[in-house]
Every structure is written in structure tokens, then in C-alpha cells.
Design goal:
The protein is an all-alpha fold. The chain contains six helices and no strands. The two termini are 13 Å apart. Keywords: Membrane, Transmembrane, Transmembrane helix.
Amino acid sequence: MLDLVLKSLVIAAGFGLAVPVGTPAVRALLKRVERRQQAQEAGVPGLLLAEKELAGGYWIGLLERAALFACVLTGFPAGIAVVLGVKSIGRYPELRTPTGRKGELFIIGTFASMLWASAFAGLAYGVVRLW
């Protein structure tokens, strides 16, 4: 019984690190990308403008990381494809801009979010498998 409780705590800790803590990590990366881009170009829509135009990104990111965490942990790779497909199709009309800047930020944020959630899911899976 204690074994099950410990495994559950490891999974819950991994989920807690993967989902809510992923938001500031992904935003920090996007801000770094934005600073670098602004240093090279002028007049491109910035991260704050993209965030305004893509309302709901915070909640979509949380749900995306939760779904990816669950798919990786349970060994369901087709679920990852479904998550990415739904996210891409749902945002496609909003991402078509002349500069493509929002699309770039969307892709960078999606990949960073996926890597973050996958890393903690893999870590939780590995620790649980040690038992």
C-alpha cells in the first residue's frame, strides 16, 4: 500500500512540475527569443501583442502539458498527435499573418511546452519504474 502511495506522489509531483511550472519556463524562453528578435529587426509584432491576439494561450498551454504528460506516462503516442492536431487546427486562422511572427512564437512555445511536459513525464515514469 505504501508503495502505491509513493508512486502516486511521484506522479503527482511530476504533474505539478510539468503543468503549472511549465508556464513561466515557456514564457521565459519566448521572452528571450523576443529580445533577440527585437535586437535584429524593428517593427515586428512583439510577444505582448501576440499574447493579446492569441487569448486563451495560458489555458491552452496548461491543458496541452497535462494531456502530453498523461500520454507520455501511459505510453499513448497517438494521443500526442491528437493534442498537436487539435491545437494546430484550432489556431491556424489566427496564425496567418503577413510576417509570420505569431506563427513562429506559437511553434516555439508549443515545442518548448511539449519538451517540458515530456521531460517531467519521462522522469516520473523512470522513477516509478525503479520500484
